[in-house]
Amino acid sequence: MAKILGIIVVFASVLGGYVLSHGKIAALIQPFEVLIIGGAAFGAFLQANPGSTTMHVFKKSLKMFGSRFTHAFYLEVLRLLYEILNKSRREGMMAVEADIEEPASSPIFSKYPGVLKDERMTAFICDYLRIMSSGNMAPHELEGLFDMELSSLKEELEHPAHAVTRVADGLPGFGIVAAVLGIVVTMAMLGEAEQAALGQHVGAALVGTFLGILAAYGFVGPLSNALEHDAKEELNLFEAIKACLVASASGMPPTLAVEFGRKVLLPAHRPSFSELDQAMRGS
Asked: Which stretches are annotated as coiled coil (predicted)?
């Protein structure tokens, strides 16, 4: 909701100020300038990134108007970890083997569809539970393995934001390209067109610069920041999972192991101690 409000504020402020200054909206409608700027930016993006990144960025961008990293989702992840660790502590690690091998049909995982829907997170949890069930890795070795994977995961999660940032950096330049091409067209008309027509073409050229700068700082730049924030939240949740499982591997009881994970979470959506305690009792 806040992102939609931000877009509305940008449009209202820029266009409202322009209209109040006796500007004409029709003068800003320049589809060919938009074609030059948007097409050049998209083409540069395709050159700079693999095809998988293009689809990933579009999917992530569409999800920016809502966030799955909410208070309820954090609590759901912690409850899942508590249940699986509690079962393994009471019945042994071999008792959760069926749950981690087929999480989709697991009675525990099935209670948490939000987590199960995230295939990467589900695989992450199950992989480390398999390693823990082998019993051949010390807690510090397990933590080292976590750190190596989280380091590569961080690079992957942050790549979409970096890719969009580069597009935002290039948009003012593409706006100048559109403006220069407009001036070239105007210069070719000197001596042939009337003064009013020349003025319209110069105005259209300047709109190219305006659109490039506005798109960079009003929309694409904020989108890259939103993608970066989303990546930080997702990585933070993986770090919380790591804290829970390492604490459990170190011999901590499930209630205390999950508390380790809760403390790692970002404060914005972190459940309180009492909320988590009640949730575990409900489990």
From this structure: none
